[in-house]
Amino acid sequence: MAEAPEEFTKWFSNLPTEKSGLPALGTMSAALVVLEHLRESCDLEISAHLTSKGFQIRGVSGNAVKKILARFGKVPPSLSEGGRTSRGVPPRMEALLAALKAFELDKMPGAKCEIVIESCQLFLVHQILEFHRKKKIKIIFDPTQTTRDHIRQILEKAKERNQSGQVAQYLVGAKLALRFPDIEISNDSYSTADQQLGRPGDFLVGDTAFHVTMTPMDKVYDRCKKNAEQGLRAYLLVPDDHVQSARRRAKDEVPGRVAVESIESFVGQNVEEMAAFSQGELNAKVFGLLVAYNERVNAIEVDKSVMIEIPRNLEPRDR
Fold this sequence. Notes:
Order of helices and strands: HHHHHEHHHEEHEHEHHE
Mean pLDDT: 89
Number of domains: 2
Number of helices: 12
Distance between the termini: 46 Å
């Protein structure tokens, strides 16, 4: 595919940036939508792209942005919206249209115009992916709360970003790696199915297969049955609010062969135990858990937004 024209990339480089070093998501999303308008009609006047009140770019929404990203096969799992737009966005879109006018986009034949627009959109798609890659999960560490509550907070934040399944798996993997430093704990991509890898569960420790799921469905109980047939024990880890129903289902499906625990308790209590139930040690252990979690995510995930931004009050004082 052709590269985006210099006039366009120069416009992009002149945009104000955030802490990530990239322009605001709302600005990039609006630009994607404006370029989409140009596919239908190559009108380079800003008035053609504004809402009736003239304060915002028409058609900008999370769904609109997702649809464009999907066409390029690049929808980040953490994308929940198109990004907020502000009064500063229309002037930036006007500058974008001026840049394309300087490139004489409106004078090009349809096929060539389409290629240029697509090259500009692809450029923006890569920038949006980079934006989400850099946007880690942010949490607040309150030393008066239990570790179980800290884990719950992480899962809730991840749920808001449609990442709870990934985060739960990597949290359990990090906890197992810390708890059993002499045992190699597998670290496979969340999107890779057990069947593809020929593994009995998300993790195998000794003769116990661990299954981590935010929504226990038929398939996970089928895997637990298969574990029992293979002479393995099964450990099913689910969110707190699914524990009771999962225990009833496991008792009916594989009586006496499946241990069902909450993810919050399984991870939280083990961290407390490793800290010898000492508050002084606990902060260091929670810090170690998050470091191990980030290392595991960074080693295997393309989408780095699944990583957790470690709160400053958790970091060792001598760092």
